[in-house]
Structures are given as C-alpha cells and as structure tokens.
Amino acid sequence: MSRKSSKSSVSGRPSNARNNVNKGLTSSEWVAQCTPWLDSEGALYQRQDVSIPPLKDFFLIWVDPYQVVFTNWQIQSPAKMSSHRGAICWETDYQGFKNEPEMRGLIESRTGPAELDFLDVLLQGRINFLDRMPPKLQMLIISYLDIKAVAALAGTSKYYKKLCYSDTVWKALYHRSGLNANMTAGLLETVESDGWRVTYIMAHRIRRFATPLRRS
Asked: Domain limits at 46?
C-alpha cells in the first residue's frame, strides 16, 4: 500500500522503508545486487526535475532497494501561494507501485510515459548499468556501437547526446571504420575546426561517392 503525506522537504533517504522481494530474488539478494550501484545518498535512481508543460510543478522521484517515493511541489503564483502548503509525498514498495493508479498517473503527467516505462523495467531488476559508469568508460562503450545505435542513444537525453557527439566517440568510430585510410589535409583541417563527428560524416560521403558502382 502507498502512503500519501504532506511535508515541506524530503531527506536524502526516505523514512519508513519497507522490506520488498523483487521478482525472482529474495529481499537480501536484491539489496546485495543493488548495493554496488547505489549513489552516495543510498538511491538506486533519483530524478529531480520540473514537470513537462503545461504543468510547472517541481518533483522528486526516488527509488532505493526497498521502495519508490514520488514527491511533488506545486508551483503557484505569489498571489495564490499558501504558507501552509508543503510537498505531497507518495511512498510504496515495488509490488504496490504496480497497483497505484494515482501515483502512476501523477508521475506520467509530469514526466511523460517513457519515465514510467523506465521505472517499471528498473523495478523488475533490470538495472541500467551504463548510467552508473564513469563518463570515460561510457564513451568507450558507445564507440563500439554502430552509427544507428549511437544516434538512437543520443536521442534519449541531453547527457547522452553530449557523450554521443563527443570527439572521443567519433574519433574512435572514424578509425574503427577504416576511414583514416582516406585522410587528407582538408579533413585534418576539418578535425581542427569542426571536430571528429563532422569529419566522419564528410569522409564517409567522400568514400561513398568515390566508390565505383558495381555492374550487375
């Protein structure tokens, strides 16, 4: 069951965490699996953000090995603001989250359906390990993806767009694709002025148009 309460703030670790058994794992096994991936505050996942339009509420989503917490601060104009109005908080264990239409509806209305899908997958025990790796390791892994996968990942968030557009990733893609065999003085200038991503695109076009068509 969820618990709805009103409070002015939320501490780093929510109170009254309830024991939970993740599907296929005992509670202790699930906690052991999560522990290496918890952040400094003990969260498996947390997001603080402003709601998508037309709402302007501020919210916090918190997931630890035991529970899901959604806290919402309604942003009001100074004329309507009440000094007695605090944050509204919903807390539930993993199993309860599946059966809480009000809590799920609030999250979806403030974040969109993709966030709710992500939370459902996370609570099934499918941890997103890539998010928890250092940026250098993330870029190394991304550099082994094909171009379509890199483009798809870049569209998931501003953070991954920055990584996927980085010179580190595109330099590795450039050399791994064999385009370095066609490096020219002009392309070297492009690297200096526009970076490796633009250089990759230009070199790929040059190679494509320079390759003679095969006769059938």
From this structure: 3-132
